[in-house]
Design a protein that fits this description.
2 copies of one chain form a homodimer.
Chain A (H helix, E strand, L loop, with lengths): L10 E4 L7 H7 L2 E2 L3 E3 L15 E3 L4 E4 L12 E4 L9 E5 L2 E2 L6 E10 L4 E9 L5 E10 L6 E10 L3 E10 L14 E7 L2 E6 L5 E11 L2 E8 L2 E10 L5 E11 L8 H15 L1 H19 L1 E4 L2 H17 L26 H13 L2 H12 L2 H10 L23 H5 L4 H16 L3 H21 L1 E3 L4 E3 L17 H24 L1 H10 L4 H13 L5 E2 L4 E2 L29 H6 L8 H7 L6 H11 L10 H11 L3 H12 L16 H15 L3 E2 L5 E2 L10 E8 L2 E8 L2 E8 L1
Antiparallel strand pairs in A: 1-9, 2-3, 3-4, 5-6, 7-8, 7-13, 9-10, 10-11, 11-12, 12-19, 13-18, 14-15, 15-16, 16-19, 17-18, 20-27, 21-22, 23-24, 25-26, 27-28, 28-29
C-alpha cells in the first residue's frame, strides 16, 4: 500500500513530486475520452522513471504469441493496443539548457486532476542546472465533447530574462514495453510539418495526428518533419516575470472511423477548429460535457471523504475509458492507462462493467456492449470448434478485440469457461433492467442458444454421480486450475440453460416471426435441444458440504489445509509475487469471489443463511489479489450486515488504485474493477434490484459512519435519485 | 507409422533414398559413444531437408527461459545441449560442380548401420548436373575405444576422368533449431589450419576439435582457417574408375575433462594417434570394443526378426548414449540424435534406464547414475526451498544438467513431483540387485531422508478424509494436470517414507558410525522425524473404486466419460497433435502407465488379480503417446498372460523409432525408452526379479511365436545367461 495523494471530494492531488512515485502518478492521473487517452507522463523531456503511453481505442497489433510449450488450440497472436504517437510532446530549452525535471531542482510541484472536468493540470517551479529558474503551468485534456481531439496549454514564466525555445512535437517512434519479441508495431505512413500518419504493421490500422500550435511571447522558428516525427519550433527572449504560452490543439483520427484518404484533412480540421475556438472556450465545453455525465451518475457519500474520493475516481475512470458510442469498442482492464492486459475485452465487461454503464450512461451504451459480443458470435463458434465442441456452440474468448482469442495459457484460455456464463448474465441483466425483451428476439437469444449448445456438450454425465459434471475448469478464483465441478461454473451453466430454454418458449409465444427466423438460421431442434438443455440444467451436480452447510467451491476443496489468510506469514503477500504456483493452487487461498460471485449475481436464488455461511467461510480464505474481488465481497458483507468487512472491502475496492493495495499501480489503473466498485454501492449498500414486474427496489445497508448516501441512476427513460439515510431509502424521479 | 527400413537381425538398412525420409534417417542412423555423437546427416553438402546435429556430452548453454506468463519459481534458464561444430564436414567438387544429393540424380543408394560395431556406412552412385557420374562410399564412427575420437573414410570413384577437389572441414558456425530467442550459443576461441576451438556463451565450456586428414589420389592444395571454421583442401585429376579416399581423424575434447590450456594438444594427439594407427586398425578396435559390450547384454529372440532387430536397436541406443564412465553425465531422452528435451536428465533415467545399465553395463555404471543425483542433492534442497518446502527437503528437478531446474511449465516443473519417487526407487533397485547396502550408508540414505522430508511436508492431513492427501500433482500420465491424490504419487511417497525409515533403522544397527555422521550432518531428529515418516506413510489416502475393484488413477477419475481408445475418431491420434489441452485433460485417455507404473515397480506388493483388473481397465484407455508407455504395458501384459497385447506393445516399444509410431522420429531417437524396452524383455517376458535373499529369479511369460529367448545379464560379479523356451527358464553362470 502506498499513500501519497491528498484527500479531496473531487480532485486527485499530488502536492510534492517524488521520482519513486513517478510511474504511479502517470497511471493515476491518466486521462481519456473513450477514444483517445494516455498516461500522465510529462509533456516536456523527462529522463527519470517513466512509462509513456498514448493510446487510440480499437487499434491493435497482432503480436506473435510467446509460449514455452505450445499446445494445440493456442492462438497465433496476442493482439495488443500499441503505444502510439506521443502527441503531447513539448521540448523546452531555457538559455540553451533543456528542461528535464530529472536533472533540475524542483522547488514546488503540484499536479491535479479534477474529476469534474477531466482536465489535468500541473504547476511547478524549478531551477535548472544552468541556474535558470522558471515556473511552468500545464493544462491537458482529452476532449469529451469531441473524442478525436486533445489539447495542451503549456506556460513558462522565467524569473530572469531568458532565451526560451519550445518544440511542439508529435513523436511516432515509440515502442510497447510489453512486446513479446521487441518488435516495432508501427510504420510511418506520411508526414508534413503539421501532421504525422502512422500505420500498424500486420493489422494495417492507420492513424493521423495533426496539430495547430498558438504561441504567445515567442516567434516561430521553423519546423521539422521526418519519418515518425513532426515538430513546430518557437523561440525568443522572454523578459523576467513574463509568461510565454503554447496552446497545442491536436486532432487524432483513425481508419476505424474514417476513410484512409481523408484522415489528414479530418485531423487537421479538428486541430484548426480547436485553435479557432481557443483554449478557454474548449475548456468550458469540456466542463459542460463532463457536468452532464456527472448529473446522471454521481454518488455522494456524506461522512467519509476517502470513500467519496474513491468512488468518484472509480466512476471517472469508467466514464473516461468507455463512451459507449461504438459497438466495436469495449473496456480494457487498464483503460488508457497502461499496457497490461493488452487492451482487450475480458469477462470483466459483462460481470462488472455493464451494470454501471446501464445505470450511469444509459441503455444504448449497455446495448453496445451486448452487441460487441453478438457481432463476434461467429468467431466464438469457431473458437469452440477449435476446442472440439461443434454444433453451433460458442465459447467466447478470454481476451479479444475482434472476437479472435488472444490469450494463451491453457488453464485460462481453454478452461476459464465461466466467461460464457457472464455473457448470458449480461443479457439477462440488461433485459431485466430495461424490460427490452425485443433484444432477445433481435440478438440475445442467438447468443443464449449458442452458449447453451456449448454447455450441454461441455458437461458430461458421470456414471459415478448419476449427474452432469463439468470437468477441468478454472473458476473466477484463478488460484485454482483445472478443477472438477467448480460450483460457480456449474451454476452459471445450469442457469444459462434454463434461461435460454425459457427465452425460447417466450419467443415462440411472443415473437413468433423472429423465433422462426432464428430457429431456421441456427437450425434449432426445438424439442430435442430444449429437452437436453433442461435435462442438463436440472441434473447438474453441485458440490456442497452438509456438515458446514455451505456450497463447495469445487470438489475436494475440504481436503485442503484448514488455514485462513491470518495464517499467511508476514511478507508473503500478495501470494502471486511470493509463492510458486503449485503452492498457491493447493492452498485454500482464494484470489477473488468464486462461490460468492454466483450469490452476488443471483442473491434472490439463495437462502440468506446460505449466503451468510458461505461468506463467513470463504471470505477469511480470500486474499483479494484480483482487483475484481473487494467490490463483490463488500456488497455481500453489506447485505449480511457485516459492516466492518463491508467498509474495509469497500475502501479497498474504491481506493485500490489511489492507495495501491495490489502494489502494481505503476502498470495502470484498474478500470473494469472501478466500474465494479460502483456495484458495491448501488447493488450492495443500496440493495438495488429490479423485481419481476420491472420495479426498481432499494434497501439500505448503510454503514453507520456514512451520514447519507445519494446517487442517481438512469432507469427506463428517467433519472432516479436515491437518498439513503440510516435504514431509510427514498427514491425521487427526475424527468430526463 | 512409417516403415521404410529393411528387416535384419543386426543391421539398420535404408536401401533407397527419399528426401521425405531424410530427417528420419538422420535420427535413426545417428551414432555416438557416450561422449561425442550426432545425427546421420551427410558429410558432403546437402541442401535438401536436414537437421544437422553434432553434440558433446555434458556441455550445455543456459538458454533464456521463454514463457508467456511468468510464475514465481520458474528457472531463469532452460539449459540445453548446444549443437556443436560439424566435424564430419567434407565439401566435394567434381569438375567444378559441387556434390549435393539434393541437386543430383541418385542412381543407387544404401545406408547401413551395423549394430555390432556402430560403424555407419553409405554408398551411392549419382550423376551430377554437369553429367559427372561418381560412386561414393563413406564410413563413419564415434570410437567406443577412445571416446574423444571420431573418424571418417570418404571414397570417391568417378566413372570418367575428373578433376576432383575435397575440403575436409570443421565448421563451428552452427545454431540450434530449438533456441528460445535465436541466439548463437558459441563464440570462436581459437583456430589454426588443423584445429578449431569454440567456447559456449555464458556457461563458458570450451571444446577443441582437431583433425588429421590422409588422402590417397589427390594432392594437398592448402587450407583455410578463420573464426569458427577450418578446412584442409585436396585436389587433382582422377582417372576413370580410380578411387580417391580421404581418411579424417578427429579428436574432440572439452574443458569438462581437460585443462583448458591443454585442449588443443590433447585433441591433436588423438587425431595424430588415429592417423598413425590407420583406419583399418581403428575399425578393428571398434569392432572389438562393441563385441565386448554385446557379450554382456545381447538379447536373442528366435522366431521374430522384427522384435529381434528392434530390441538390438534399443540396446545399441542405450549403450552408445551413455557409457557410465562419469557421474557428471546422464542419459538425454534423445541421446545424441536430436535437440528435443534439450539433452538434460529426466526421471526416465531412474525409472527406465538404470535397470538396463545395471544388468547390461554393470554396477559401477548404475552407481554413477545414482551419484549423479547424490551430487546434486544440495541443489534439489534449494529447489524445494524455492517452492516453499524447507527443513532439508529435496525436490529433484524435472530436467537438469547440473542439478539446477531447467523446465518451465508449472504443471510439470512444480507438480510432476513423482520424479522424487523414482529417485528413491532407483536406490532401492540398485541395493536389492547388488546387495550393496554400504551404498545406503555412504550416499543413499542422505537422499532418502531428503526425499522423505519433502513428502511429509508436501502431503497434508485432510480433515475431511482423516488421511494424508497429496494435492495438486501431475502423475506419470501427463494427460492429467493438477489432480488430487494421484494414486501412483501417493504410493511412491508412502513407500519412500517406509523405505527411508527402514533404512535408518538398518543403518543405526549395521553402520552405526556412518549413521551418526549422517544424522549429525543433516540434523536428523530420529524419534520425531521417523515417527512422522511412518505416520504419513501408514495413513496415506489411496483412491480406489470398490465396485470395479480397481485402484483409481486419481480422485474423480470415474466422473469422466466412460469411453475407451476405440471411441477416438479416426485421424485424431496422436491426441496431443489434434486435441486442445483441456479436451485431453478431461478425457479418460492416458498418455502412459500411471497406476500401472506403480504395479510394474512393485509387482510383489499387489495381488495378481488387482494387477489384472487394473490392466484391463486402464490399458484400453491408454493412448501410449509417451515413448515410455508401451514397454511397461508389454511387461504387465506378459505377466497376466495377455499375449496379444504383450506382443503388440512390445513391438511398439522396441520399434517405436524404427517404425515411427509417434510420428516424430525426425526429432531424434527415444533413447531412454529404448533402455526401457529392455525391461519389457527381462522384467516382463522373462519375469526377472531378485528375491529378499538376493537370489535372481526368472519366470517365463514367452509369447508362443517366439521359439526361444536368450539373454545375458551382469549379476553380482558374474555373467548370467538365461535361456527361455516355452515355459522353461534356464540360468547358466558364466564366470566374468
Amino acid at each position: 500500500m502506498k499513500h501519497y495523494l491528498e484527500e479531496d471530494d473531487w480532485k486527485i492531488i499530488e502536492s510534492r513530486f517524488s521520482e519513486e512515485n513517478a510511474k504511479a502518478s502517470e497511471s493515476l492521473f491518466s486521462i481519456a475520452n473513450g477514444q483517445i487517452g494516455g498516461r500522465a507522463s510529462f509533456e516536456e523531456t523527462y529522463t527519470g522513471p517513466s512509462m509513456k503511453g498514448c493510446y487510440v481505442a480499437g487499434i491493435y497489433y497482432p503480436d506473435k504469441t510467446r509460449v514455452g510449450w505450445w499446445k494445440v488450440g493456442y492462438p497465433e497472436t496476442f493482439d495488443k493496443t500499441p503505444n502510439s504517437a506521443y502527441w503531447i510532446g513539448v521540448r523546452v530549452r531555457i538559455d540553451g539548457e533543456e528542461l528535464d525535471l530529472h536533472r533540475a531542482d524542483i522547488k514546488e510541484f503540484r499536479r491535479e486532476l479534477d474529476l469534474r472536468d477531466g482536465i489535468l493540470t500541473r504547476t511547478f517551479r524549478t531551477v535548472l542546472p544552468n541556474g535558470a529558474a522558471v515556473t511552468v503551468r500545464t493544462e491537458r485534456m482529452c476532449c469529451l465533447f469531441c473524442p478525436e481531439m486533445g489539447t495542451l496549454r503549456y506556460s513558462i514564466t522565467p524569473e530572469n530574462a531568458a532565451q526560451i525555445t519550445i518544440d511542439a512535437y508529435i513523436d511516432g517512434n515509440v515502442l510497447n514495453e510489453e512486446s513479446n519479441y521487441g518488435e516495432k508495431f508501427w510504420d510511418g505512413a506520411g508526414h508534413d510539418p503539421l501532421s504525422l500518419t502512422m500505420r500498424t504493421r500486420k493489422s494495417g490500422f492507420t492513424v493521423c495526428w495533426a496539430m495547430q500550435n498558438r504561441v504567445t511571447g515567442l516567434e516561430s522558428s521553423g519546423g521539422e518533419d521526418r519519418e515518425g516525427y513532426v515538430a513546430e519550433k518557437f523561440s525568443g527572449t522572454v523578459p523576467a516575470g513574463h509568461t510565454v504560452t503554447l496552446c497545442k490543439y491536436v486532432g487524432i483520427v483513425s481508419s476505424l472511423n474514417h476513410a484512409e484518404a481523408t484522415l489528414r484533412s479530418v485531423a487537421l480540421g479538428h486541430a484548426e477548429r480547436g485553435a479557432r475556438e481557443g483554449m478557454e472556450r474548449l475548456q468550458e465545453k469540456q466542463r459542460e460535457a463532463w457536468a452532464k455525465r456527472w448529473e446522471q451518475c454521481d454518488i455522494e457519500i456524506e461522512g467519509d471523504v476517502k470513500a467519496q474520493q474513491g468512488i468518484r475516481f472509480c466512476i471517472f475512470q469508467a466514464l473516461q475509458s468507455y463512451s459507449g458510442d461504438y459497438p466495436e469498442l469495449n473496456i480494457a482492464p487498464k483503460g488508457f492507462s497502461g499496457e497490461k492486459y493488452a487492451g482487450g475485452a475480458y469477462w470483466d465487461t459483462e460481470a462488472f462493467c455493464l451494470p454501471f454503464y446501464l445505470s450511469g450512461s444509459g441503455a444504448e451504451t449497455a446495448r453496445n456492449l451486448l452487441l460487441f459480443r453478438y457481432n463476434q458470435l461467429d468467431k466464438a463458434i469457431e473458437n469452440a470448434q477449435k476446442l472440439g465442441i461443434g454444433n453451433g456452440a460458442a465459447l467466447f474468448p478470454m481476451a479479444t478485440f475482434n472476437g479472435r482469442e488472444c490469450h494463451n495459457e491453457w488453464e485460462i484460455t481453454f478452461e476459464e469457461i465461466h466467461r460464457n456464463g457472464a455473457i448470458a448474465y449480461a443479457i439477462y441483466y440488461y433485459v431485466q433492467y430495461t424490460g427490452d425483451t425485443a433484444y432477445l428476439a433481435s440478438n440475445g437469444f442467438e447468443v443464449l442458444a449458442a452458449l447453451s449448445r456449448y454447455w450441454v456438450q461441455r458437461a458430461n454425465f458421470s456414471e459415478a454421480k448419476r449427474k452432469y459434471v463439468i470437468l477441468g475448469v478454472t473458476g473466477p478464483n484463478e488460484y485454482e486450475n483445472n478443477v472438477n465441478n467448480n460450483w460457480y461454473t456449474n451454476y452459471m451453466a445450469a442457469w444459462t440453460l434454463r434461461y435460454a430454454a425459457d427465452t425460447a418458449e417466450m419467443l415462440r409465444r411472443e415473437y413468433p416471426n423472429d423465433y422462426r427466423r432464428i430457429a431456421a438460421r441456427i437450425r434449432l431442434q426445438y424439442e430435442e435441444e430444449l429437452a437436453r438443455w433442461i435435462d442438463v440444467s436440472e441434473n447438474m451436480f453441485f458440490p456442497e458440504d452438509p456438515a458446514l452447510n455451505i456450497t463447495l467451491q469445487q470438489e475436494g476443496y475440504l481436503d485442503k489445509e484448514p488455514t485462513t489468510t491470518a495464517d499467511i506469514p508476514e511478507g508473503e503477500r500478495p501470494l502471486n509475487q511470493h509463492w510458486s504456483w503449485d503452492r498457491i493452487l493447493r492452498s485454500p487461498y482464494i484470489k477473488q469471489a468464486d462461490v460468492l460471485q454466483g450469490m452476488f449475481f443471483f442473491p434472490e436464488h439463495f437462502d440468506k443463511g446460505l449466503i451468510y455461511r458461505n461468506f463467513n467461510y470463504y471470505e477469511p480464505r480470500t486474499v483479494h489479489e484480483s482487483s475484481l474481488s473487494p467490490s463483490v465481497h463488500a456488497a455481500i458483507a453489506a447485505w449480511i450486515g457485516n459492516e466492518e468487512k463491508a467498509c474495509e472491502l469497500f475502501l479497498r475496492a474504491v481506493r485500490l488504485d489511489l492507495d495501491d493495495y495490489n502494489r502494481e499501480i505503476e502498470e495502470g489503473v484498474h478500470v473494469t474493477s472501478a466500474a465494479g466498485a460502483w456495484l458495491a454501492v448501488v447493488r450492495g449498500f443500496a440493495g438495488f434490484r429490479v423485481d419481476e414486474t420491472g420495479e426498481p427496489l432499494f434497501r439500505s445497508h448503510l454503514p453507520k459512519r456514512w451520514k447519507s448516501l445519494k446517487f442517481k441512476i438512469l432507469f427506463r427513460g428517467k433519472i432516479l435519485q436515491i437518498l439513503l439515510n440510516g435504514s431509510k431509502a427514498e427514491v425521487r424521479e427526475i424527468k430526463k
